[in-house]
Give the backbone structure.
Amino acid sequence: MLEASSLSHKSPLTKYTHYFTNCSLQALISSTPNPQNFLYLEQMPGGPGSSARRSVRVVVVGDPGTRKSSLISAVAFGTVPKKVPPVHPPTRLPPGFYRDRVPVTIIDTSSRLENKGKNNEKLNNADAEELKKADAVILTYACDQPMSLSSLTSFWLPQLRSLEVKVPIIVAECKSDLRGDPLAVNLKEMMEPITGQFREIDLCLQCSAIKMIQVHYIFYYAQKAVLHPVDPLLDRDSLHLKPRFVRAFKRIFFLCDRDKDDALSDAEFNDFWVKCCKAPLKPTEIAAVKRVVQEKRQDGVNGRGVTFKGFITLQALIFGNGHLETTWGVLRKFGYGDDLELRDECLPVPPKLAPDQSVELASEVVEFLCGIFGTYDEDNDGALSPTELEDLFSTAPESPWDEARYRDAVEKTSLGNLTLKGFLSEWALMTLLEPRRTLAYLIYIGYSGDAAKVFHVTRRKSADRKEQLTERNVFRCFVFGSKIAGKSALLDSFLGPVTNFNVAYVLEFDYRPFSEYYYPTTSDRYAANVVDQLGGTKKTLILQEIAEDGVKEVLSYEEYMATCDVALFVYDSSVEHSWKRTKELLEEVARQGEVSGHGVPCLLIAGKDDLDPCQIAVQDSAMVSQEMGIKPPIRVSMKVGDSKNLFSRIVRAAEHPHLNIPETEVGKGRKRYRHLVNNSLMFVSGSAVTIVGLAAYRAYAARRNSN
């Protein structure tokens, strides 16, 4: 690989590599992009304002004769040799070449085409593979070769689409010195038909390798497009700012609005700028910026300062003028990555110490969530409407509970509003499944406590069994059973009656309608709710329905059952086959628990008790429960609302992890064998002690008689 630094050659842009210039904020919102006129944030690798990338790979393609190889020679060596190689080996621009201090590897291509049927050519495999690995693409054409310009739309850009190359594309017009006066040509107007059709093009520039015209800018902008990307911020089709962009800056605005008056005072605005740029603003500068903002949006400034609408208008002006370094620098200062989500290093999630441990929200976090629920429940009806919930998560990338597994997993009112129980249950479910995401969303909505103390790591279940008690507040329950046994109906009933409030805001209850139709569950489904226990304690129970077809996959992961606190086995008590299949599932789970050491309490649920019971199922289930050492089946009917206090009984089973663990005949045999071996060892060791003691006594007696 060629190294540009091996020839004492540097980019002329390196003289602008420093933390800040004298460029003002006003210049950022009123000037067009110019590498000499940027307000630089901290761009040292790994710093808060820098990209996480450590290298950028740029692939150069174009028609033969467009001097793409000369372009690479010019940027790497500062001159074009008399004999330019047909294809350059990979060429590296070192970290200090451009101001972001991220090395650039340039890949030259042969532009050799392969036939693919009559009049249908395609790129050779080697070049195609290089393009698939590219971070950015420079696409060249020559101003003295009109066909090379036409081939951009007839071949190159369609080829990039067919290869699914979704990276920034810089179009470079080479040999621009042959135009005489390059400025006489309006490149923007000339390229508009192409950029309108292919919106993936980031930039079009003229250059000349021979005359060293804008050569360094071609690769600088390619690097910049990767390190400070446009796509996460802008919808290229509508040319509107993307929702995540607006939401991220709304969070930043709220963090900077310390007095919570919905406006940034001059002092708050200056503090924001100092945090991002370490460059305080003069009062005259702040006044000038406010004037520019107010010209663009009348309600962007009020008597208290810059409003959020004005703040986002300011960011749009900076972004629209091409100062993406500044936009991304602000975002990265506040912890955002290229996907406009908080970076992993901002989310200190405790690792699971063992498969049978879990994490729960600390009590102070639950108190925070209760408080924020009340804050956003603007009509004080005890539930969050979709609009109120959207407002709560308006500073997050999106609502975390739009996914299927969260959407219908908790208690809601008849209007679809989220009750406090449902709200806390959603957080408990997300914490169980995605603790890192939970922490991120807590920070998005304004939690300012110690992130390292958000979670409580539970004790190992093996220790709980030994102590015959658990301290957990959240229990995970797997629901197994045959098809059409009533597993989904059980989950539905767990979400409780539909709560509603009448005109006097008095709580009323309507029972959920029982569905007579069968809809097979094809993926994991969850139901989470708070269960009130005797003595006023509250536990969160999370039911996870395991589809019959998914049991094999669940049991294939030996440690997966270790995450379960209690397992239910549901069967249709009126159908013999349903019981037999559920019994098989119970035996499979019991066997795996005996082998892995992760046995869990198990309960049999005889569903559809409103129907005439199958006597064989009744007798066999009673015998099986007795033989395996678990409680007799709990008979329920979700259709008539007869649950026999089932969910409290599930919680009690989880609270006593040493009980109701099923034993197979094989497991009992192993247990008897271990017991026999232990007794034998105790007998042998006891006999040995007796013999040693007798020998010692005889030796003592012999010595005494001799004296």
